[in-house]
Design a protein that fits this description.
The structure is a single chain. With 315 residues, the protein is α+β, with helices and mostly antiparallel strands. It has a domain of 50 residues. A five-stranded mixed β-sheet has the order 1-2-3-4-5, sandwiched between helices. Strand 2 and strand 3 form a beta hairpin. The two termini are 27 Å apart. InterPro entries: Acyl_CoA_acyltransferase (IPR016181), GNAT_dom (IPR000182). This is N-acetyltransferase domain-containing protein. Keywords: Membrane, Transmembrane, Transmembrane helix. Pfam families: Acetyltransf_1 (PF00583).
């Protein structure tokens, strides 16, 4: 008799349904909010800060005990100072919550995408008589497209105003029809019916006569040149309880295979990716930089293995 197992399958694929995309955006937003804990730990455990706090508390305790001789007063005062210090750290790192709310939206997903052009470039010379009818028709189509775009934006704004949740991913409508196709690909890893990993892959910029080249200072690749010619990873995260189990590597492998199959160079991590925000002084950014280097090293290892023809890990 064959025993039945209740272990759900682990699969990685492109998220085509809107519900899956919403769940992926929420997971990415959660990873941004979790950076608040990382920043708080970095501040509390910093040697200079920890030494200064202990010294101040010791001075206050000694002063109160010598003047009053009341141990209860000393303990309560020290506890109040510690709580005040923790509240100050919470205030300093609260910006990550706001950043998470901005990240888990369709607006963040479509940020920097190329909109579909609805108007032609102005001509330096007047049109010929033979093309007058065609120009009138083009203007009518342009006006209709602009009116449709305004209606879509107004409807999206109304739905956004009615949404009271922290992240607006659920009730907002995606506006892919206003942008060029095949620019953002959301890759997810599912454990059974739950999405436990997400990666956002953006295609390389497509230069066209109507679209000026991306300045080097605003590129999103690992360097100024990479951002102009390579696919970029704008977000990469795994649910906390499933980290360090190879799921993130599987997402990177799938992203690399997508680039290979579509003929895209790369990918590289975008400079302004979802978890790139640093809201604490440089002295407390060591843990962030360590994670950044480890992520880029993992991507490099996956790309080297892919070029060498090493089989991808089974999902």
């Amino acid at each position: 008799m064959v025993e039945e197992t209740d272990i759900p399958p682990l699969t990685t694929s492109v998220a085509d349904r809107e519900a899956e995309q919403v769940d992926a955006l929420r997971l990415i937003a959660d990873s941004v909010a979790q950076q608040r804990q990382t920043a708080s730990r970095a501040i509390i455990s910093h040697p200079v800060v920890l030494t200064a706090v202990i010294a101040i508390l010791a001075i206050i305790s000694q002063y109160l005990f010598d003047r009053r001789g009341d141990l209860t007063l000393v303990v309560s005062t020290v506890a109040g100072c510690v709580l005040t210090w923790m509240a100050a750290i919470g205030y300093l790192t609260s910006g990550y919550i706001e950043r998470a709310e901005q990240t888990g939206t369709w607006a963040w997903l479509h940020e920097g995408r190329v909109r579909i052009s609805t108007s032609s470039s102005p001509s330096l010379s007047p049109p010929s008589a033979s093309r007058t009818g065609e120009n009138h028709s083009s203007r009518r189509r342009t006006a209709a497209a602009r009116a449709s775009s305004r209606r879509n934006r107004n409807r999206s704004d109304e739905e956004s105003d009615n949404d009271n949740s922290g992240t607006n991913s659920e009730d907002q409508e995606p506006i892919d029809h206003e942008y060029e196709d095949d620019q953002d690909t959301i890759i997810v890893t599912r454990y059974g019916g739950q999405i436990i990993g997400a990666l956002v892959l953006r295609s390389p910029p497509v230069s066209s006569p109507s679209t000026p080249p991306v300045p080097a200072s605003t590129s999103q690749g690992s360097s100024a040149n990479d951002g102009n010619k390579k696919a970029t990873i704008r977000a990469w995260t795994v649910r906390m309880r499933y980290r360090n189990k190879g799921i993130g590597t599987g997402l990177l492998e799938y992203a690399v295979s997508q680039c290979r199959s579509r003929g895209w160079p790369g990918p590289v991590f975008a400079e302004q990716h979802a978890n790139s925000t640093r809201l604490v002084p440089r002295w407390f950014q060591a843990s962030f930089e360590k994670r950044e280097k480890r992520a880029r090293a993992s991507l490099q290892e996956v790309m080297v293995a892919s070029e060498a023809g090493v089989p991808e890990t089974e999902r």
